[in-house]
Design a protein that fits this description.
It is a single chain. This protein is α/β, with parallel strands linked by helices. Helices cover about 40% and strands about 25% of the residues. The protein has a six-stranded mixed β-sheet, sandwiched between helices. Helix 9 packs parallel to helix 14 (about 395-415). The structure holds adenosine-5'-triphosphate and magnesium ion. Adenosine-5'-triphosphate (ATP) binds near residues 67, 68, 69 and 159.
Length: about 425
C-alpha cells in the first residue's frame, strides 16, 4: 500500500508548532503493519494543498491530510479538495445536528460560522468527531487520467485530541478493510522506565538474537524518563515470535516494564491503587504540580488521589507539612531531611496510604558543588515508614519536571507491588 501523509498549516511552516501528527500517524500505521511512503507538510494556502494532493494522486493508494477542517477563514482543506476534485459541497444534516448538540450540551451559543463544517463534498463519508465539531471526511477518488490507481482520501481535523481517537476508532478499521495486509503482522510495545536505551538494549539485545534471525524486528524508542521496546514480526508465526520475545524481555526486565502499547505510567498507578482501595497525596516543590497534573489526567483518579500541595516556599513546607525550621536551616529545602519530613508530615495530615514529596533544584541557577542543578529528593511515606531517594536530573525545567515525576511514579508503582521493600 502506498500511503502519503499531507500535513497542512501555516503554523508548521513558521515553526510555531512541531508537526507531531506526522510522527503519530506513522507510528500508528506502522504498529498495524503499514509503512508510510511519503510525508509532506505544506502551507494551508490554496495552491499548496491542491498541488500536494494532485501530486499524490496517481501514485498513492491512500492519502491522509491533517488540519484545516475548522470553521475559521484559514481552514480551507474541505473547500480546496472539493474544488480540486470538482465535487459539490452539500450540507449534511447529521453533522449539523452533531454540531448543534455539541454546543447545546456545553450550554454555549452556536456561532453561525461553525455551520460550514457541516458542508460535505459529494461522495464523501463523514467521520463524526467525538471531541469537537469538525468531522473528518473519507472519500474514494477515481484514478486521474493517465493513471491506473484510484485513491482513498482521508481528511482529519488538526487538534490532536480530535484527530487521534478519530484515527484509531474510525480510520484504522477503514484502512484495514480497504487494504488488508497480505501477511499477518504481530506487534507489541513494552514500556519501561528506569534504564537508558543503551542499557535496555544491552540487557535484552543478545537474548533476542535468535528470534531476530527468525524475523523478529526490535526497536527502541527513548523519551525522557522512559524507553519503549517495540517488538514486531510478520508471517504465519508472527504471533508466536512476538509472544516468545515478550517473555524473554519480561524475564530480564520485567520489574521495569510498567505497561504495554499506549498505557501511561500514571494510568497504571491509578489502576493499582484503585484495585487495592488505597489513596495517595502529594507535596510537590520543584515539580510544581506536574505529578498532580499527570494523575488527574487519568479518569477515575478521584477514587484514589486525595490531593496535592505545591509547597514552593519554605513557609508552606513548615506550616502545611510540619517541616521543622531547623531542618530547613541546616540542610536546606532541597535535602533528604526535608523530603523525609515533607512526606511524613503530609501522610499524617492527610491519612493517605501513600504520601509523596518532591524537593530539589530545577535550575538553571541555585546549584552548588555539593548539590548541582538537577539534584532532586523524592520522599515516600507508607504504613511501613518513610524513605527518600536522591536523583540527578540535569535537564531544562519542563523535562526536569517530567523525568522527576516519572521517577516518583515508578517508585510508587514498585512500592505498591512490593510494600515489603520499604523499611
Ligand atoms: P480547528 O477546528 O481547531 O480549527 P482544524 O481541523 O482546522 O481544527 P487546524 O486549524 O489546522 O485544524 O489546527 C488546529 C490545531 O491543531 C493547531 O492550532 C495545532 O495546535 C494543532 N495541529 C494542527 N496540525 C498539527 C500538526 N501537524 N502537528 C501537531 N499539531 C497540529
Ligand atoms: Mg483551524
Amino acid at each position: 500500500v502506498h500511503i502519503q501523509i499531507i500535513n497542512t498549516g501555516r503554523e508548521l511552516m513558521l515553526g510555531w508548532r512541531l508537526n507531531t501528527h506526522a510522527q503519530w500517524l506513522c507510528q500508528q500505521l506502522f504498529q498495524h503493519g503499514y509503512i508510510v511512503s511519503r510525508q509532506i507538510a505544506v502551507d494551508d494556502s490554496g495552491p499548496s494543498i491542491q498541488d500536494a494532493i494532485r501530486e499524490a494522486l496517481g501514485r498513492a493508494d491512500l492519502i491522509i491530510t491533517t488540519g484545516g477542517l475548522g470553521p475559521t477563514s484559514d481552514d480551507r482543506t474541505r473547500d480546496l479538495v472539493a474544488d480540486l476534485l470538482g465535487r459539490a459541497l452539500r450540507q449534511d444534516p447529521a453533522v449539523l445536528a452533531h454540531i448543534t448538540a455539541y454546543f447545546a450540551t456545553r450550554k454555549r451559543t452556536c456561532p453561525a460560522g461553525v455551520h460550514v463544517q457541516a458542508q460535505v463534498p459529494e461522495g464523501a463519508r463523514v467521520l463524526l468527531n467525538a471531541h469537537g465539531t469538525a468531522p473528518g471526511l473519507a472519500m474514494e477518488i477515481p484514478a486521474p487520467t493517465g493513471h491506473t490507481r484510484p485513491a482513498c482520501l482521508v481528511m482529519l481535523p488538526g487538534p490532536p485530541r480530535e484527530l487521534q481517537p478519530m484515527f484509531r476508532n474510525q480510520v484504522l478499521p477503514l484502512i484495514q478493510a480497504q487494504f488488508p495486509l497480505s501477511t499477518p503482522l504481530a506487534s507489541q510495545i513494552l514500556r519501561s522506565t528506569g534504564l537508558g536505551e543503551s542499557m535496555v538494549e544491552e540487557a535484552i539485545g543478545p537474548l533476542l538474537q535468535s528470534l531476530a534471525q527468525e524475523g523478529l524486528e526490535v526497536g527502541y524508542c527513548a523519551r525522557p524518563g522512559e524507553v519503549d521496546i517495540q517488538l514486531l514480526a510478520r508471517g504465519a508465526s508472527a504471533e508466536k515470535t512476538v509472544a516468545a520475545a515478550e517473555q524473554i524481555v519480561r524475564g530480564r526486565l520485567g520489574h521495569l516494564i510498567f505497561g504495554t502499547n499506549d498505557e501511561l505510567l500514571e494510568e497504571v498507578v491509578v489502576r493499582l491503587l484503585t484495585a487495592r482501595r488505597q489513596t495517595l497525596a502529594l507535596a510537590e516543590s520543584c515539580t510544581g504540580g506536574c505529578l498532580a497534573h499527570r494523575l488527574t489526567n487519568v479518569p477515575g483518579a478521584s477514587q484514589v488521589f486525595l490531593g496535592g500541595l505545591v509547597t514552593y516556599h519554605n513557609s508552606l513546607k513548615e506550616n502545611f507539612l510540619g517541616v521543622r525550621a531547623e531542618t530547613l536551616r541546616h540542610h536546606g529545602a532541597a535535602s533528604e531531611s526535608a523530603a523525609l519530613e515533607m512526606a511524613a508530615g503530609l501522610r499524617s495530615r492527610t491519612g493517605a496510604d501513600y504520601a509523596i514529596s518532591v524537593t530539589g533544584i530545577a535550575g538553571p541557577s541555585g546549584g552548588s558543588a555539593e548539590k548541582p542543578v538537577g539534584t532532586v529528593f523524592v520522599g515516600l511515606a507508607t504504613a511501613q515508614g518513610v524513605q527518600a531517594r536522591q536523583q540527578l536530573n540535569p535537564f531544562d525545567r519542563e523535562t526536569f519536571k517530567h523525568v522527576t515525576s516519572q521517577q516518583a511514579l515508578e517508585w510508587l508503582r514498585q512500592t505498591i507491588l512490593q510494600p515489603a521493600q520499604m523499611s
